[in-house]
Amino acid sequence: MQNRKVFLFVSWRILIGFFFTAVGISKLFEPTPNFLYLVQSYQCFPPILEQGIALIVPWIEFLLGLFLLLGLWTGQVLQGFLILIGGFILVLGQALVRGLPLDECGCFGGLISVPISKMIIFDIGLWVILSILLNNLKQTKCLGLDQLFDS
Length: 151
Description:
With 151 residues, this protein is mainly alpha-helical.
């Protein structure tokens, strides 16, 4: 049973890490104005912050994803993801509640088109999985670089 748990947690860690690394890379290779337009379309940030968000979020997704994939600083990375995904849920939720005319979330750059309501459900599920991984940190760290530094 213990080996199955470890396999499950490590698999989820690697899958989520790979996913966010790919999503971050896809946004980094798109022109910044594309993502900036998306950030502006949610109408929830002061204009002075929108450019910074458009520049920083893809890097955060990429780096957190890479570190999770490698199993490096796993606890801190999972906490960072919980904050990031929580923010995504709030931004998507306010757009849905306000009835903003958005056909899709734009969360994956040009890779995939997903309606906002489905993305909120996805993000809530992801947030739950990340919480479980954090609550089982010892098993989640297995086969990761953290094991080189933990003694």
